[in-house]
């Protein structure tokens, strides 16, 4: 029998487990609010110096806002300082993961702050550059930051798509099946023991796991078809009424959904782990580049309010 499966024991009312609870409206609302706030901020910053940002490099020198909005100006340099602080604060999420056992707030909250500070810091860095990258260090820093942001957004999206198995819903569905087709749950367990979830080597490269995604999808579909066949082939206790047939089909869908979700969850979790490692590596490279960018600016006299 599969390690994750066992006999269903009914212990009273079954409630929906928090582990399998899907991300609902609260998470989507938070994302929409963040996007809306960043959009408003970006519009406000752009409106502040629209003529300056749309001008070419020669015309910018004659612009009235040149001394304040240029990368070394009071406002433009301030954008860079605040953006850098936010990006460095963004890395606190990595420390929080290392201290997972400490009571420092939920990981979901820290992840949302990680995304917020990363996007906000990147936005300010973009306006700090005044949409121009005239030095190799500035160009490399901008490219590194862009890659980190893109991989971070992709990782957050992958995290949102990673399914969470719902054992309580599965047990309720198997109880319903056993009431209509006695012994059906045992047949399901046997089928799942035959079609075990393929365990993924966590030490494999990210590209290797990406190449394995089609196989995970095929395994999930195959497992779902097997579960459906076993349930449909189970001897039903008597002639089912219309309402009972509907209940039987609903329970079958839930069991099939859970069986396929387990395959997807294992593969997606492994892929997400490697993606985090890749994103973390890029973030550390960015951390090494940013001090170099700051040091060069300091040597050339761009010291913001700290100038002598």
Can you describe what's shown?
This protein is mostly helical and 308 residues long. The chain has 2 domains: 25-132; 167-275, no CATH class. It has helices spanning 25-48, 50-54, 57-61, 66-69, 74-90, 92-98, 107-128, 136-161, 167-180, 184-194, 206-211, 213-232, 242-299. It is elongated, with a radius of gyration of 27 Å. The termini are far apart.
Features:
elongated, mainly alpha, 2 domains, disordered N terminus, 13 helices, 308 residues
Question: Topology, pairings included?
Answer:
Elements: H1 25-48, H2 50-54, H3 57-61, H4 66-69, H5 74-90, H6 92-98, H7 107-128, H8 136-161, H9 167-180, H10 184-194, H11 206-211, H12 213-232, H13 242-299
Quick structural summary:
Helices cover 71% and strands 0% of the residues. It is mostly helical and 308 residues long.
Poorly predicted tracts of residues: 1-23
Share of residues in strands: under 5%
Helices, by number, come to: 13
Mean pLDDT: 80
What share of residues is helical?
Answer: over 70%
Query: What gyration radius follows from the Cα positions, in whole Å?
Result: 27 Å
Task: Report the count of strand segments.
Answer: 0
Distance between the termini: 74 Å
The SSE order reads HHHHHHHHHHHHH
Oligomer: single chain
Class of secondary structure makeup: mainly alpha
Shape: elongated
Major sheet summary line: none
**How many discrete domains?**
2
